[in-house]
Amino acid sequence: MTASPPRKDAVRNRQRIIEIGRTLVADGTPIQLNEVARAAGVGVATVYRHFPTPQALIEAVSVDGLEALIQAAERAVQQDDPWTAFRDFLVRVVDAQLLDVALSSVLSTPAATLPGTAHLLDELSSLFDKLFVRVRAAGLLAPGITLADMTPLMCGVAFSARMHAATDSQQQQAAAGRHYLDVVLNGIRTR
After folding, report:
1. In sequence order, what are the beta bridge partners of 189?
2. What is the C-alpha separation between 146 and 130, in angstroms, rounded?
3. pLDDT, tens digit, for every residue of 35-91?
4. How far is CA 117 from CA 1, 49, 61, 123, 163, in A?
5. How many other β-carbons are positioned within 10 Å of the β-carbon of residue 171?
């Protein structure tokens, strides 16, 4: 038996809730689902039916960013030069974290709340694993650098850029993020 497609008003409500969530995340306002319901003009039960926790809503807001990172990783996997592919993808990750607070939150959380987010994160992780294995096999990483080191390093770079340039424009934050990423990459690259 197949499930019937969602009603048009349910789809519209879900999209409106996500838009409100996106605005709150971009403004740095903590997500409170009761307030989201009020702002979206829907009942509280409607919000909770779609997003049982604030983290679930943040994950829904991050979907476009995750999909863009997956596309960037797919392109990077196809590049010939392992170091350039690895470096360019990490630049993309840092830029994305600085431009999309929801994405930064989702990438730094140990486990996804929504199955769709978990799937996207698994896909992204699998592609990054390929990039990492390739750059490691080419002998371009210093001994002792592991795949497990990369997530905290990238989150740290984005966090540092955000803190260093807290009052600066996004372009200045991106420049700081790229500078810090260069420092990290110089530290992990084989000599």
Report:
1. 141
2. 13
3. 999 999 999 999 999 999 999 999 999 999 999 999 999 999 999 999 999 999 999
4. 26, 17, 10, 10, 27
5. 10
